[in-house]
Amino acid sequence: MSLTRTHPLEEPVIKTITLLTRIESMSPEEFSTYWSTVHGPLVGELPSVLRYVRNHIVSASARQAFPSQDYAVDGVVEEFWFEGEEAKNVAFASRQGQELLKDAENFVERITVFIVHENEVVPMQA
Questions:
Q1: According to the model, what pLDDT value does residue 107 have?
Q2: Chain mean pLDDT for the chain
Q3: Which of 12, 46, 76, 121 has the highest count of CB atoms within 10 angstroms of its CB?
């Protein structure tokens, strides 16, 4: 299975999905504000990013028939697209990437990153 897919511009890309848990000393509102106003703009300075979509958790539920995770998730970076694996590595090795990773320590306790292969089942309706 390939880790790359084609985004709407028909270029091969790397897509990641990331789960974030806030530091214990921050309220959910403080986490959301920091992520939007301080950390988010740093992402815009990262080289080679094609798309970045963040999701702020407003409520959560679990189905009783299925076990749920054993830790809280306060935010989800749904889409972090790069031109390819090399572009992703270069981006995070850059000065901007190192600043971004260092800044995450100010509001994130736990980060889980998945490199995913997207399979669109129901296309977005126009």
A1: 96
A2: 82
A3: 46
Tokens of 51: 């798309």
The residue type at 118: E
- Name the DSSP letter for residue 101: H
pLDDT digits (tens, 9 = 90+) for 54-96: 888 877 766 666 666 666 888 888 778 888 888 889 999 999 9
Specify the DSSP element, H or E, that contains 97: helix 95-104
**Residue 121, by phi and psi: left (phi above 0), alpha (psi -120 to 50) or beta?**
alpha
CA-based end-to-end distance of the chain: 30
- Domains located in the chain, CATH noted: 4-61+70-116 (3.30.70.100)
| One-letter amino acid of 32 | S
Is the whole-model pTM more than 0.85? no
For 69, list phi and psi in degrees, rounded to 5.
-65, 160
What's the CA gap between 20 and 107, in Å, rounded?
9
